[in-house]
Amino acid sequence: MNVPLINIENVSKRYKNAEEYSLQNVSFAIFKGDKLGVLGPNGAGKTTLISILCGIMHQTSGKVTYNSSGSKHSIFGFVPQDFAFYDELTALQNLEYFGVLYHLTRKEIKERSENLLSLLGLSSVANKKVRTYSGGMKRRLNLAIGILHNPSVLFLDEPTVGVDIQSKNAIILFLNKLNREGTTVIYTSHHLSEAEEFCSKIAILDYGKIIAFDEIFALKATHKADTLTDVILKLTGEGYRDHV
């Protein structure tokens, strides 16, 4: 029997002083090797769910079970939408700093930093302050920091937002490589065409509830849709979802 790597059972979240729940009775399973896209309109609960799964915050009710050895600190990698590094440091200095937080040895930090900077096209600027970087370079450094400790599960919140097509392509190719090598990827984005090409499974959230969960081809067949965008519009409607 294939045991889920992460099992989510009836997870709900209501923030302090909030009238409504941000998540309501969310249940699904994530298996080793999945490339799972968590999608939905603004305010659907995507970032809240990702934050709970990777241990940044706790659910109000429900249960999340992790069937893997090691601590969440060692097996999880998290690449947030906001840049999580120090602008006044160089790329190498940032990686050295976060490598110490990950409890890596000096040798591990040196070898992994050099390898990641090379793979992500940052070797030539490794000793330049990050504040001089382009948006795409900063995105790639953000990714390098999140995977420096070789996590077996990688959480990505809008990993390609605001970058040029070359950086976007490089990031997706690199994530596919990680996945082929065994990393389980949980990804959220508003780039639906990118999600359709990258992900194997999709969880669609709306108003804090899971309204669809399946492989992409099955979702398109079920809803008689040509694209993932069509599926989401059919399920969530075409009205504006702006929040003040």
Please sum up the structure shown.
This protein is 36% helix and 22% strand. The chain is built from 9 helices and 9 strands.
Describe the structure.
With 244 residues, the chain is an alpha/beta fold. Helices cover 36% and strands 22% of the residues. It has 9 helices and 9 strands. The protein has helices at 46-53, 72-75, 91-101, 106-119, 135-147, 165-180, 192-198, 216-222, 228-236; strands at residues 6-13, 23-30, 35-39, 61-66, 76-79, 153-157, 184-188, 201-206, 209-215. It has a 6-stranded mixed sheet, with helices on both faces. A 3-stranded antiparallel sheet has the order 2-1-4, covered by helices on one side. A hairpin with a 2-residue loop joins β8 and β9. α3 (91-101) crosses α4 (106-119) and α5 packs parallel to α6. The chain is globular and about 50 Å long. The N and C termini lie far apart (46 Å). 36% of the residues are buried. The mean pLDDT is 91.
Structural class: alpha/beta
Roughly what fraction of the amino acids lie in strands? Answer: 15-25%
Count of β-strands: 9
Question: What is the count of helical runs?
Answer: 9
As a percent range, the share of helical residues equals 25-40%
- Radius of gyration computed on alpha carbons: 18 Å
Low-confidence stretches: none
Q: How do the helices and strands follow one another from N- to C-terminus?
A: EEEHEHEHHHEHEHEEHH
Task: Give the end-to-end Cα distance, rounded to a whole number of Å.
Answer: 46 Å
Query: Looking at the structure, what is the overall shape?
Result: globular
Oligomeric composition of the shown chains:
single chain
Mean pLDDT: 91
List the strand order in the largest sheet: 5-6-7-3-8-9
Largest sheet: 6 strands, mixed
